[in-house]
Amino acid sequence: MLIKEIQLNNKDNLNFNIVLNKFYLEKKDVKTFLCVPQQISVKFLANSVQITAAEKDFLLLNKFFIYLNSFLKEVNKVFVKKLVLKGLGLKVNELTNTDLQLKLGFSHLVNIPIPQGLIVKFTKSIITIQGCDLSAVGNFASLIKKKKLPDAYKGKGLWYKNEKLTLKTVKKT
Question: 72: closest CA among 29, 123, 36, 33?
């Protein structure tokens, strides 16, 4: 039987649970999980997590140990993406906990459901997306940007905060 341990420092009031082979981690606003392979058992001790497996599953144990270690380190990071609304008539109409409603110059309002675990804020012309999962933040930001891509000539549309695009010149006749 092989045993590995990961030391925990619970400064940020993290809650850990295991339900049906899923390692759940709860933070103030975020609830994420990690699937545990059936060959591996996970136990919580006072200040550590103990991972055990049979000797034949040595490679699986090492791989899961590395993955769990990086998973616990990434939880405390907050990733941020900012989108800028450029152009007349582009604005955030309404923001609730579950939906983002945008006015993008179409004949209708655009509703976008906000995924769980993400925090969306806005000021006059900047939409800020925060979360502890980098891929979720990036995917949601790109989903919003696809609703109104920047115009090639005037630059109207949704831009990332530090995005640099060269605009086309207008042909003069």
Answer: 33
